[in-house]
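hey can u check if this looks right to u? its 154 residues, i copy pasted from the old doc so theres a chance i mangled smth
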Amino acid sequence: MRPSQIPGTYDRGEWQDPNSGWEHSTVQEEKIRVATKRNRALPLRKVLQEVNRIIEGWAVYFRKCNTWLSELRELDGWIRNRLRCYALKQHKKKYPTFRFLRSIGVAKQKAWYAVRFYAWWPMANLPYVRNGMGILWFARMNLRSLVAVQRGKR
């Protein structure tokens, strides 16, 4: 490891954050980024099948390397956020997105607020959108949880 890569040091005038994340995230996140690219013309169910295959592979790897569950929970949450954004973007325009948000249980006023004032990624991070498209919603859509698969639960 070069001295400039050591966390907590400077590299060409840029501070290397000692809490910048865990080592594995770049490769895994890139695979998910490719699978959940928002301009793909695939139905959400097909994207979920792809993501489930990726998660299965990671679970085997993480089971062998004994990764901390908190790191897996972070990655699991990030995957769900990418998929929320993908699902919202599929509706393309404001009114269909509003109807989708209403169908998942978001209040009328909050749904309009989200659609009118937020882009896709910030909209996916809103608390009421996260509640509507939460862990149970993804479980009904057959998304595998990385933490559950790593623990050996099916």
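The CA atoms of residues 99 and 111 lie 8 Å apart.
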